[in-house]
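# step 3/5: fold
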Amino acid sequence: MKTKFLDNNGLLYVWKKLKDTFIKKVELDEVKNSIPKNVSDLQDADSYAKSVDIPTKVESLSDATDYAKKIEIPHSVSELDGMDAYAKITALPKKVADLTDGADYIKKAELTEEVKSLIGNTKALEFSVVEELPSSGEKSTIYLVSNSKAENDAYDEYIFVNGKFEKIGTTSVDLSDYVKTSDITSITNEEIDTLFV
C-alpha cells in the first residue's frame, strides 16, 4: 500500500477549501452591526448594576465584619500563634557535617575516586568470532557464531552464564516492515475534496 503526503499544491488547495468554507467579510460586518453597543440594549440589562451603585468601601459590604483591617493583621512571624513549633532559617543546617547523621555519608570527590578505582579493575567487554562455541566461555565476552541463514555475514550472539552459553541476539537486521521512499506518493486534490464532503 502506498503512503500519501501533502505537497505544496495540495496545501494550496486545502487553503482555498478552508477560505471557501468560512464566513465572508460582508456577512461578518452585518453580524457586527447587529451587536448591541449599550448594556441597556441587552435583554438581561436589569440583572446588572451601574458602577455608581457598586460599593467602594469594605464597610459598605454586607459581610464586612468577616474581614480584618490591615493594622489587625500580624506583620511578623513572632506574632503568629504556634510559632514555637517552627525554626528560623538561620538555625537550619547548611552543611552535611551539621546534620546528626552526616558521618554516614561520603564526599563526592572520595566517591568519584572509589568509582574510578572500581571501573579500572573491571574487564572491558570483548567480542570473539568463533566457528563454533567452545566448551566454556569467559566473562565480559560476547561470542559471535556465523549464521549461514542470514545475509552479509550475520552472526548469532552468545554469552557464557551460569555454566552454559545463552543466545542473546543476532547481528541480522529485518527491514521488511519499513516504508520505502518508492512507496510514498503525494495526495491528490480529488482525495482532499473527499475530506470536505
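# step 4/5: annotate
The first strand starts at residue 3 and ends at 5.
# step 5/5: archive (pending)
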